[in-house]
Amino acid sequence: MIFISFSRRRRWQWCIVLAVLLVSSGLLTGSAGAEERTQPIKIGVLTESWGPTPNTVGLRDGLLELGYRENDQCVIGVRFTQGDLTVLPAAARDLVQYGVDLIFAGYDDSAKAAQMATTRIPIVFTAGTDPVGLGLIQSFARPGGNVTGVTGLYLELSPKRLEVFHEIVPGLKRVLFLYDAADAAAVAEAKVYRDAAHRLGMVLVEKPVRTEAEAQATLAQTSKGEVDGILVPNRISLNIPGFILEMSSQRAIPTMCEVSFFVERGALASYGPELHEMGRQAARLVDKILKGANPAEIPVEVNTKVEFAINLKVAKALGLTIAPEVLYRADRIIR
Fold first, then answer.
1. In 3D, which of 58, 61, 98 has the Cα closest to residue 77?
2. What per-residue confidence (pLDDT) applies to 235?
3. Confidence band of 334 (pLDDT split at 50, 70, 90)
4. What is the end-to-end Cα distance of the chain in Å, rounded?
5. Rounded to an integer, what distance in angstroms lies between the CA atom of residue 106 and that of residue 92?
6. Per-residue pLDDT averaged across 32-56, rounded?
C-alpha cells in the first residue's frame, strides 16, 4: 500500500500540527515594542501533495529547535490538494480568507498559487527549480515583494541521479521517464535526463502525457521487457508518482526518485535534496519574518544537503544485489 490516495475526492483540510509560543513581541508588525498578540499566529501550509510533507515536518522541527514551545500562541495548518494543481489557486485563496499570518508553500506550484492569492501576507517557499524564472522572486539576494524561501538542486543533481541508478542496476539501458507535458519544469527535467542518458550510453524513453487517464494507460502498456527502470518525476501533477509506484511494484520494475519520501513507500532508491532539511532552513526564515523582518529583504537560501536512500526490501523483491561500495555511500538504508 503506497501513501497516495488514488481517489479524485479533494481533501482540503485545516489541521493543527504544531502550536508554539512566540517568545518575542511585535510579531508580524515590525515593531519591537508592540504589545504581545492575544490571538494565535496562524501559519498556513499550502501543498499539492497528500498531506503534511517532509518539508512541513522539517518546518515544525526547525521551529522547535529555535526555542518555540508547543500548545500556545501559534498553529500550523495544512491545505493539500492530492496532486490536483487546478485547485491550488482556490486552496490558496481559502488560506487568505481564513486569515493566516504567513503561508508556507511546499513546492513550486503551491508557491505560485500563494503569490497569486496575496501580495500582503508573507510567503516562505521550498521550491525545487528556478524561483527567479518562475517569477516568485526578483533575485536571490533581494527577493522583493512578499516572498522568500529555500530552493533545492533538483535539476543540477539529475545527471548524477541517473548515474547512481545505473550503479544500483548494472544492466540498466532503457529508462522510462513519464511526465506532464504541460509542466515546464518537468519538460526541463526531461531534457536534462535526455542529455545525461546520451552521455552514459543509455536510452531515455520519454512519455509526455496530459491527463491522468493517459498516464495510467501509458504505464499499463509498459512492460518490464520494454524498459529496465523508471525515473519518477519530482513533480506530482497528474498523480504520476503514485501511478508509477503502484505499477512498478506490480511488475517488478526498478524505480529511482529524487526524494526519499517515495523510497519509504516502495521506490527502489532516491538521490536528491533532503526535504526535511529544506523545511528546517525555511523555519529560520519564518522566524525572521515573525520577528518583524521584511520578506523582500531576506535572501533566498539554497539547500545543498543531498540524500541517497536505498530500500533493500524492494531490492530483494526485485532480485537485485546492491554492490557493497554503493551501499556504503547511501545516507539511508531501509531494511
1. 98
2. 80
3. very high
4. 17
5. 12
6. 74
| 79-95 residues labelled b (16+ CB within 10 A) or e (exposed) | bbbbbbbebbeebbebb
Span 130-152, pLDDT tens digits: 888 888 999 999 999 999 999 98
pLDDT of residue 75: 84
For the segment 143-162, the average pLDDT, to the nearest whole number, is 93
CA distance 56 to 17: 9
C-alpha grid cell, residue 263: 523510497
Q: How many angstroms separate the CA atoms of 116 and 275, rounded?
A: 24
* pLDDT, tens digit, 9 for 90 and up, residues 67-118: 877 667 678 889 988 878 889 999 999 999 999 999 999 888 899 999 999 9
User: H/E/C letters for each residue in the chain?
Assistant: CCCCCCCCCCCCCCCCCEEEECCCCCCCCCCCCCCCCCCCEEEEEEECCCCCCHHHHHHHHHHHHCCCEECCCEEEEEEECCCCHHHHHHHHHHHHHHCCCEEEECCHHHHHHHHHHCCCCCEEEEECCCCCCCCCCCCCCCCCCCEEEEECCCCCCHHHHHHHHHHHCCCCCEEEEEEECCCHHHHHHHHHHHHHHHHCCCEEEEEEECCHHHHHHHHHCCCCCCCCEEECCCCCHHHHHHHHHHHHHHHCCCEEECCHHHHCCCCCEEEEECHHHHHHHHHHHHHHHHCCCCHHHCCCEECCCEEEEEEHHHHHHHCCCCCHHHHHHCCEEEC
Please, are residues 57 and 282 in contact by the beta-carbon 8 Å criterion?
no
Torsion of Cα atoms, 182 then 186 then 190 then 196, to 10°: 170
